[in-house]
Design brief:
Oligomer: single chain
Number of helices: 4
Shape: elongated
Strand content: under 5%
Length: 94
Amino acid sequence: MGESFDDMAVALSIEHNRVELDIGEKRILGMRLGMSDEALRIVTMEMSEQLRLVAAARDLLKQLAPHEAEIRKLATRGKPRLIFDRAREMVGML
């Protein structure tokens, strides 16, 4: 069956922390090198977007975790559209 949604959410939390540390490290290095605030923002912009996406994925998995069995059952039936529609209903998305 692979990793559970909860396990994947924990892994994404660890990745989120790693990216935060990487951003902090780059900011410290940039400040030591005398980079401007704008230059630091540009250097960390992509990582900040990655941070946002990792957090969104983690939060979605946490919301879907209580419904994991149903989602996996739909997946074994090979009905990807039903999985997507049902997942949207579960998390209250329009």
